[in-house]
Amino acid sequence: MKMKNYDFSAIESKWQKYWDEHGTFKASDDYSKKKFYGLVEFPYPSGHGMHVGHIKAYSGLEVVSRKRRMQGYNVLFPIGFDAYGLPTENTAIKTGVHPRQVTDENIKKFTGQLKRVGFSFDWSRVIDTTDEGYYKWTQWIFLKMFENGLVFRDKTLVNYCPSCKVVLSNEDSQGGHCDVCHSEIVQKTKEVWYLRITEYADKLLQGLEEVDYLPNIKLQQQNWIGKSTGAFVNFKIKEQDEQLRIYTTRPDTLYGVTFMVIAPEHPIIQKYRDSIANIADLDAYKTECAKKSEFERTQLVKDKTGVKIDGLTAINPITGKEIPIYISDYVMMGYGTGAIMAVPAHDTRDYDFAKKFGIDIIEVIKGGDISEEAYTGDGEMVNSGELNGITNKKEAIEKMLTVLDKLGCGEKGVQYKMKDWAFNRQRYWGEPIPIVHCPHCGMVPVPYDELPLKLPPVKNFEPGTDGESPLAKIESFVNCKCPKCGCDAKRETDTMPQWAGSSWYFLRYCDPKNDKEFASREALKYWMPVDWYNGGMEHVTRHMIYSRFWHKFLYDLGLVPTSEPYAKRTAQGLILGPDGEKMSKSRGNVVDPNDVVDEYGADVLRLYVLFMGDYEKAAPWSESSVKGCKRFVDRVWALQDKVVDSNEYSDKLKSAMHKTIKKVSEDIEAMKFNTAIAAMMSLLNEIYNVGSITKKEFRDFLIILNPFAPHVTEELYQLIGCKGVLDEQEWVSYDEALCKDDTIEIVCQINGKVKAKLTIAADAAKDDVIAQAKADEAIVKAVDGKNIVKEIYVPGKLVNLVVK
Q: Lesser CB count within 10 Å: N end or C end of the chain?
């Protein structure tokens, strides 16, 4: 009977239906089994549906998870939806369709796409951060933080997006633009909610020593937290009984401080405004600064602007000299103490400022020419009293710390670049913050047994005015009774940021239907930590640091069994458009996975996103390479005609089979999926060269290919009459002895220059190899008329003959 062409459409839907009906990928509740918890970043369900980048992001751990099941593990490989946030709300405002409906439609769309690709997710554990049964626990954890002093309110300058009418964290407005609509942001004073993540800065740094993250991921987290050691120093104000406190990493340069700069918003200005002669100038400058984003204010390369304060003078605590105080936009109240000491001789920004305003520049580190530019290198201390002559920076800092201690004007200190997390949005589509404002009791938490505090149904999702949430307009929601004293009170109307739901979602997957606790202790003890987490590099700071913080907090309360949530974290590179640029709708270079599945099938898409290059690096989409993967699948399908009924490996393919099984097994663990697929392609070529394949060889080949291309392999497994389904088979083992090459190629050098290549027996002795080298035609010619003075053999690599 003639073999039919591979009908991927019918076969893929057949197996997807089978997996669905049999719950094939459900994690078991049998906690006696060895477990594997593989986690991918759950998607934000947008109206555009998935792009091929999502498919690549999930395919890595998809392959690992399918392999682990065959290795006998109880595998938890879950999926869910991170569905709160501005994009959905903006769609709702535009279309008039409620965000709940928009979200449900988008989730349906994403689910359909994921199932079409054949991902082995446990669909019985799907979570949705906007579901009341889920956000009840997001609110519960928030209240636990409130109870433990990690939630507070504070007035601050916030990044405000005039277009979205929403307050943004620094993280959501990088580069001075709103993450969502890309409008320029402005500064606005507002009372906002914060989570005290800085309390956990040291724990977050120490925890990085316990985990297996890519080096770049660890580095990015360390830089984000930005721990620095230095000193706090107090500068007295000549005219008042007051002092300005600064933090510096270079206390050794205090003798070179010739002026100070404070933030235009520094409270000392308000406090002594009656004593400041040029207060009108300071007020005008402050107003100008409010129009600039934080990004603009802290840019290094820009004209230095500022105003000298007429009426407040500082005293350098080490030299006793009077020094002027300026306000300038590059100093922010939210960073450090809102005041800095300036050492113009050794800091480029301070140097430019001093030159512009005619301020003294005093050299305290020898090595440059300060008449030309600031010297920022190391060197001998000069003009620095008891520090003079010290050439070691560390020693100079230690010495100055003892001086500060003796004078009582400063002490050693630590600062972090990471700031407390601005934890609120003035929008509708987010978790309501479960706090009541009572005129008598202050801020009162909503009782735990009243959670979830539900989002009220609304028809108008338009943002409120002046940075207020749309919830502020709903009197039935706002007006309530104080849970403590029973008097009239007002509900908080801000909602949580989108990061809230993703800060603990990995815990909910362990026990997603529990309505008594966020997850049972038994489930957490079994499943946690996540064994392997894969996601995008863009989330290794914000999301990962936020979620590690929430997890560590719960660990400190004894509610989770591990101090770190993720044992291992890897990342995938972007898929670029066919033009080599980042995919974007505006460029018109987005590849829709549905289109690829329609034309070539899911297995081809799965193979291609892993075959296109190094998993961790960016790679452009290539239609011709997709077709190459299609040819591979078709040739695998055609192998059914070449099967010989034998339950052994043939002599011709035995070595190739063992080598390929070893390569694929190891490459999956190292995320070298492209080379694993290449090895299977090479094996396929060898099979075709031999012209036949035994049933045993075909079965084992299907097992190692299955995690990559599960549909075609399942179908072929049935067609050749194997029992059961592939998913339930054991991963194949290999014999190390059969993986060794009989012969290897080495280079032969004369005086370090390659002259020939030799094929030698893999286990050849040194004398035999050197004899073979000397007999080689090219080597004979090269040494003619010369003496061999030394013979070097590096086993398996090279022979080098030194001649004179």
A: N
